[in-house]
Amino acid sequence: MAAPLLQTQIDINAPAAKVWALISDFRRMPQWSPQCRWMRPLGPLRPGTRTINVNRRNRLFWPTSCTVLEVVPEKKLAFRVDSNRSIWSYELEPNGEGTRVIESRHAENGVSAFSNLTVNAFLGGTTSFEHELLEGMNASLAKIKAAAES
Q1: Separation between Cα atoms, residue 95 and residue 26, nearest integer Å
Q2: SS3 category, 33
Q3: Going along the chain, which residue ranges are E strands?
């Protein structure tokens, strides 16, 4: 069973506007995420916009689609992975001269049975895969930090 919440955060020495420009550009998601290889929005960034994505883990590739749920410029971006119903979000908070970014994967209502089956059959089981997701979230935030602070 999926953990209800996976979450990590980082403090970035850059204004929220600069950080927002990086995370809200879905085409750049492959630069940050170790798993995402391609992400394309099907319209402007607003609630209801869908994206088409390709993810990769080792030699395994799989397509996904997402639906944007919330867009609050320089504060919050959230989208649902349509195939498993998990919700991913980035929240930006002022932190002194910079910005704290909190990345979350919400699965408070669980994930789809198909997702559970796939994770258990092909991705090493829920515990292992969620550990890998947390590592990926930390790696993503570190790359966003490096880009924002450069």
Answers
A1: 24
A2: coil
A3: 5-12, 36-41, 50-57, 60-72, 76-81, 87-95, 98-106
Q: pLDDT tens digits, residue range 91-138? A: 999 999 999 999 999 998 877 767 767 877 777 778 888 999 999 999
| Domain residue ranges in the chain | 5-149
Question: Tens digits of per-residue pLDDT, 24-35?
Answer: 999 999 999 999
Q: Are strands 5-12 and 36-41 parallel, antiparallel or unpaired?
A: unpaired
Amino acid of residue 50: R
Q: Which CATH superfamily, name and number, covers 5-149?
A: START domain (3.30.530.20)
Give yes or no for a contact between 91 and 75, defined as CB atoms under 8 angstroms apart.
yes
| pTM, two decimal places | 0.92
Residue pair 26/40 in contact (Cβ under 8 Å)? The answer is yes
| CA angle in degrees (0–180, nearest 5) for 133-41-54 | 45
